[in-house]
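Hi all, long-time lurker, first post. I run a small reading group and we've been trying to get comfortable going from sequence to structure in the token notation. Rather than ask abstract questions, I figured I'd post a concrete chain and ask someone more experienced to write out its structure so we can walk through it together at our next meeting. Sequence below, copied exactly:
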Amino acid sequence: MDRPTNSLIEQMAEDLQPASPLKMRDGILLVIAAVVGTVLGVALLPGLWSGLFTGDASMFFVVTNGLLLILGCAAASSVIQMANPRVGNEHDGPRWASLMVTVLPIAAFIALAGHEHPLELVTDLHGLQCFGATMLASSLTAVALFMWLRRGAPVAPATAGLHLGIAATALGSAAYGLACPLDGAIHLGLWHVAPVLAGALIGRFLLPALLRW
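-- Answer (accepted) --
Happy to help. Here is the structure in token form:
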């Protein structure tokens, strides 16, 4: 290798700095901190629903928020792994968890079909409020996961953005769900799952351009 080539390599490597690897543990702790902060914010602002502590919550309330929590954890784990790309990484967890959560809106629409005034429930103002509050409650986790990916090197920005949007909104919906006193199948299946669909679309089509490196 001649001297000009050596000089060129030295110039290219001159400003390089060693980077510490991203640890899975640190990413998990970051997400936990974001979710805990979100729950604390929900507890301080709208306040937690008293039915949680008196046994008034319906089984559908527990199932809905439980499935959203599982989906959020699966998608967040996928996002954390994507910051450190490696051969053999698989991200099937969010796919299967998403299929489980899809049962909720299907059940809601089946219940709507037999309702006397279905449009009243679809245009429910409280439902719109839940949707907006859930999107707001998702912001802290979304920022945390976005900054984590920016520190790493995701090789599939579209998938990373999709899973980020799903993770943030699923965890945000589970967190805000602790304050919502409506525990019917239609309300939860529509208005607490709709933010996840919105987050998936936002993450899939708006975030990839910001995640490319």
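A couple of things your group might point at:
The CA atoms of residues 36 and 175 lie 9 Å apart.
The chain is about 75% helix and 0% strand.
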